[in-house]
Write a structure and sequence with these properties.
Two copies of one chain form a homodimer. The first copy, chain A, has 223 residues and is α/β, with parallel strands linked by helices. The first copy, chain A, has ten helices and seven strands. In chain A, the strands form two sheets. Chain A has a four-stranded parallel β-sheet, covered by helices on one side. Chain A has a three-stranded antiparallel β-sheet with strand order 1-3-2. In chain A, strand 4, helix 8 and strand 5 form a beta-alpha-beta unit. The interface between A and B is large, with 49 and 50 residues. Chain A binds a DNA duplex (30 and 30 nucleotides) through helix 4.
Chain lengths: 223, 223
DNA sequence: GAATCATTCAATCAATAAATTGAATGATGA
DNA sequence: TCATCATTCAATTTATTGATTGAATGATTC
């Protein structure tokens, strides 16, 4: 029988391998927005349903997601536990030790947003003081599943046509799915060009939620 | 061309895959004790030299270890950066979400040591106050490469014959390679049976070092 | 510079993982 | 109960990864 230490390492390695596939990481990102059916997740990631199902089952075996049946569909959601902090450790390791990651980040993301993002803590402070204008640029269905309290929802593809809904005299805080979600970067770039004062929230909604901040699942902050 | 987000996920996945093999995790554990030649690491892990070399190269590509040539041998060492915190995120995730890990830990480790380990902070405090008696149970060569200042080195296999060197009236703090290194657990079990007051240090030497605590590389704390 | 030693490389075979296909399961609603 | 739909399972093909072997490289010592 293998030693206890080797057994432990085998377990760790098994978990690391589950994270060792881009499709699964992408699935985790979508699942961490809220519950989703297999079909929806397959659509979002561009995978076949059977393939998505198999990847989701691997994630479930690894304890990263949970599932429940609702009628004829099976809904997957992020499991409890320190999953996002594991992923954020992986992220900060990658950003520091892999030149490619840094390059992609600066080429595609920071080029669109040279300003520092605002921290979750700062946003929480502003929310408490009632001075925050928060913009959620994710699609309506994701917004409905949960968002920062009082946030205004204008999906990225409709932003250009709905600029009138945003104030010009106060700083807007935009966010979307996560640290590498392009939507909020694009939103910031577009709004700045239009003369708005706007900054991104560091990370995205899952991290906001995981940090224990308040959430709202009711309909959008629109009349 | 794949989207920036997918490229990022590919990078993350690649890193996770490097951690996705028990042999590589074991190699990291040994390498994090100090510089080691390929041959030595192969011995320690029971791998063939060629195989160990290949795993080490994967770890190097992933940025987890670095190497330098010294005469005819190549020495590998742990790279800088948040590697241990990534591994500790993996560890705490595994302990929480995987029943098997919890079971192995309690079966093989905690059975030997039902007392809470002492924290690094507490040990640092005692060292400063000069009230600590620290016991390093790793082999001499690992001890020579670096240890907690003032620590006494009695390798596990010689502990039984050298009990006389330890005080009976003060609490001894034992440590070894890492959180799952059996040596310190066995040391604690043995010493308790002999009537010594003894507790383990949480984690092991690499974590102590990574947390920025003082190290000593000079010869053992023995005459 | 020839011999020796440690490591790496290259080629091979075995094992494992991923994607695809089509059939099976389990729930719903006519 | 039968038809339908979402998901999973099972079987297959393809791709990737791991281990082994023996040769090649690079550095040392005689």
């Amino acid at each position: 029988m293998a030693s206890a230490k080797i057994q432990i390492f085998e377990q760790f390695a098994e978990l690391a391998r589950v994270l060792g596939h881009a499709h699964r990481l992408e699935l985790i990102e979508y699942v961490s927005q809220g519950e989703r059916s297999v079909e929806r997740l397959a659509q979002l990631t561009g995978l076949s349903v059977a393939n998505a199902s198999q990847h989701l089952q691997q994630l479930r075996r690894g304890g990263f997601v949970q599932s429940r049946r609702d009628g004829k569909r099976v809904l997957y959601r992020l499991a409890d536990g320190p999953i996002l902090s594991l992923l954020s450790a992986l992220r900060s390791y990658a950003e520091r030790n892999r030149a490619e990651v840094g390059k992609i980040v600066s080429d595609y993301f920071h080029r669109l947003d040279e300003l520092e993002p605002i921290s979750r803590k700062e946003l929480a402070r502003r929310l408490k003081a009632g001075t925050a204008v928060v913009l959620d640029v994710r699609p309506e269905d994701e917004f409905a599943l949960g968002h920062v309290p009082g946030a205004l929802n204008i999906p990225m593809d409709k932003l250009k046509r709905r600029l009138a809904e945003l104030p010009k005299d106060r700083e807007i805080v935009a966010y979307c799915r996560g640290a590498y979600c392009v939507l909020s970067f694009e939103a910031v770039a577009l709004l700045r060009k239009q003369g708005f004062l706007v900054r991104r929230l560091e990370d995205g909604l899952p991290e906001w939620k995981a940090a224990g901040h308040a959430m709202e699942t009711s309909p959008p902050g629109q009349p």
